[in-house]
Predict the 3D structure of the following.
Amino acid sequence: MPSAERFAALQTIQRRRPAAVQAPSALQDIWASDVFTLDRMKEALPRSVFKSIQATIREGGRLDPTVADAVASAMKDWATSRGALYYAHVFYPLTNLSAEKHDGFIVPKGDGRAITEFTGKLLVQGEPDGSSFPNGGLRSTFEARGYTAWDVTSPAWLMRTPNGVTLCIPTVFVSWTGEALDKKTPLLRSNAAVNAQARRVLKLLGEKEVAPINSSCGAEQEYFLVDNAFMALRPDLQLSGRSLFGAPPAKGQQFDDHYFGAIPERVQVFMQDVEDQLYRLGVPAKTRHNEVAPGQFEIAPVHEAANVATDHQQLIMTVLKSTAKRHGFTCLLHEKPFAGVNGSGKHVNWSIGNSTQGNLLDPGKTPHENMQFLLFCGAVIRGVHQYGPLMRAAIATASNDHRLGANEAPPAIISVYLGSQLEDVFNQIKAGQLKSSTSGGVMQLGVDSLPEFPKDAGDRNRTSPFAFTGNRFEFRAVGSGQSVAGPLVVLNTVLADSLGWIADQLESCLAKGETIEQASFAALQRITQENGAVIFGGDGYSSQWHELAVKERGLENLRTSADALPVLKREAIRDLFHRQNVLSPVELESRFEVYAEQYILAIEVEARLSLRLARTVIYPAVSAYLGELAGSLQEQEAIGLSPSKAVAQQIAALNQQLLDRAGSLEAAMAAAPHGAEAHMRHCADQLMVRMGELREAVDGLEALVDDAAWPLPTYQEMLFVR
């Protein structure tokens, strides 16, 4: 029987029933009901004001400050009519989390009355503290002023709690000196860069009417659910998001029986509750299912404009966490909460397009004849080859390091998978002749009652970190707890840079009298010859690929964040962001400082937790059990038996090993060097190694100590008990 605390937790869980929630409403009745949509704006605003706002949203023009008062009044009337007493400027500091500054609509009057008021000035600008968020040296502690500024391109929404409603206004967050302190400002700048360079290419291709171009995103969110009764007994999961100790259960995910299996009833009720809230917030949650690991699940929305998708992705994470609590769960967004089973990612499906040319990464049925697609796809290939290390840096966190490179997630080497059809097309371009595209044909299933259907021209490759999947690229290496804004900023920026390079090439060739077809083919051939090394369609997990990629193709294998984050300090990266007006050199430097500090802090928190759990929870429990075991052995000898002492000796040896390795970890923590890069290297090469050694001793003890004496909920319990 498990220990008393674990047994009580198990009893609590066995008594749980699916939470009592309202039956899901009809989609048409609730869709975006808590969003101040364009339609609601149109109803509430004077025609001239609405047209001005609409032009800013759709065309990317400058916001007319004279319309702010009218919008603020209409927004306030709509929100207060639904019960809102407060409004909040919502922004995304460099923490991967959302931040909010709440203010009341209330304005006291001299005659003892109070009224509600919301002006254009309050809508457009707020002032949270600019020094208390991560800023990487952009602001001193005594320089506290920071500004939030309304992002008109993303709609405001209502956040409901059991006893109140708050109007949430999406904003950017900048310092008093104008530097970006958030993730949204660079994203908006990167979209502007893509728009500028993509328009250049399209106009050179002869397009006369070109609507504003934007990137799009659809992020597949993976997560784990653990019952709160277990979480209360796991300080490591509470404070670090991952289990620092835990022996593998006899059964994990080997049978693949959880993947796309029947969703447990209690979990499905939770999912439906989440979706009901997201639909009211206008978040187009489309897919839900069991993921590979036991206790792991996924939710995925429909693609949206990158800016709105980023806001919605933050809402998804917030709603998942808050709703889980109401259902007796904790939602874990750590990339590797449990060792030995599948970790969690956030696959970012990314493309670009507009209302006139459509999806610019759609190859059509004959991609070899679609020069527009080939140029934009070629730009992606060039961008990934030129700036693959930057893409790796964009998804570098202490938690994501546990996924990358394992046989469950893409490797840390950034490559591009195109599929057999497109890879053949680009090989033809490289050889100087572009003739045909292979066809997928028809899928025949051999049963008359089953339909025939067209087969895709290429298979998918789940081992690729960056794969083409029909009409978009899927960045599979993004971590589940990350904001998608950072990876999107990098993808947009490297694409804009390569589109600018292509436009330069086309203009140069056209000036020499070449046709646009000749100029385009020449640019594509140069891309394939100079950047084709990044294209790989094989097994990204294999050791052969790792050797080939590094030694023969010159790709970098940045295994840890300590390897990857210094990429942000390279001159070529600084020039890239500065050239595209996305991040100034000082803003880029601040990102390195912030992300390096977050990496160091995450590992040091885990190291302190490992020491405390090992010394104050595991060691006392094992020592007490050894005392009981020694007494039992003596009793057996007293009645003439000859019990084996081998297990007791093995436990005693591991328990001493635990103390020794804890001491080694503590000594390593005390020897941390100065300087961000040296400190990161110390965390990766010393602390992580010693934590692994300590874990080896603890997990070995779990496999030997009487289950009734083991103090922590086990993997078997946390992953399988619902």
Remarks:
- The two ends are 18 Å apart (CA to CA).
- The domain at 599-720 is CATH 1.20.120.1560 (Four Helix Bundle (Hemerythrin (Met), subunit A)).
- The mean pLDDT is 91.
